[in-house]
Amino acid sequence: MKRYGWMTAVAASLAAHAAWAANISVTDAWARATMPGQPVSGAYMQIQSDADARLLGVSSTVVPRVEVHEMSMDGGVMRMREVKAIDLPKGKTVSLQPGGFHIMLMNLKKPIAAGDVIPLTLTVESGGKRQTVEVKAEARAMGGAGMQHPSH
Ligand SMILES: [Cu+2]
């Protein structure tokens, strides 16, 4: 029964792996198309994790600088600040959306056109381990001056 014992060991190690690697599902990922000369934009998505996790950061191969921000009302003024992490509680859908948490795309070298696909790499920590999640955000054109992201 030596072989059987070996199989059991492999199964146990796979189970241990699954215990820390959170399953992250990202839906409805999109980025805001920009006007010519506009160096910043935002990306938004819904994130769900099957284990308690934290979004630690985001990077992109096509955007020079990416930050995770939170927007909030402060005495009637919209403010944003960079956040170190966003909590992803187990089983809860966390929305990155205009007016709340968002991914800031900065130092853009050229405009983002509607239909462009922005690859984003999310770094997520769960149970002391880090993993990356690849996301493709499709750019959407937004109408109206009210949808412009405030400048820093
Ligand atoms: Cu921002």
Q: Topology of this protein?
A:
Blueprint: H1 2-20, E1 24-32, E2 41-49, E3 53-59, E4 65-74, E5 77-82, E6 86-88, E7 93-96, E8 101-106, E9 117-126, E10 129-140
Parallel strand pairs: 1-10
Antiparallel strand pairs: 1-2, 2-7, 2-8, 3-6, 3-9, 4-5, 4-8, 9-10
Task: Give a description of the structure.
The protein has a single domain (22-143), classed as Immunoglobulin-like. The protein contains 1 helix and 10 strands, in the order αββββββββββ. The N and C termini lie far apart (66 Å). It has one helix spanning 2-20, and strands at residues 24-32, 41-49, 53-59, 65-74, 77-82, 86-88, 93-96, 101-106, 117-126, 129-140. It is globular, with a radius of gyration of 19 Å. With 152 residues, it is mainly β. Helix content is 12%, strand content 50%. Bound molecules: copper (II) ion. Copper (II) ion binds at residues 69, 80, 102, 104. Copper (II) ion is lined by residues 69, 80, 102, 104.
Radius of gyration: 19 Å
* Assembly classification: single chain
Overall geometry: globular
End-to-end C-alpha gap: 66 Å
Structural domain tally = 1
CATH topology: Immunoglobulin-like
The total of helices stands at 1
What kind of sheet is the major sheet? 10 strands, mixed
Proportion of residues in helical segments: 10-25%
Sketch the topology as an H/E string, one letter per element.
HEEEEEEEEEE
Average pLDDT confidence is 87
Pick out the low-confidence regions: none
CATH H-level name... which superfamily?
Answer: PCu(A)C copper chaperone
Bound molecules: copper (II) ion
> Which class in CATH terms?
Mainly Beta
Strand content: over 45%
Strands, count: 10
Structural class: mainly beta
Reported CATH architecture:
Sandwich
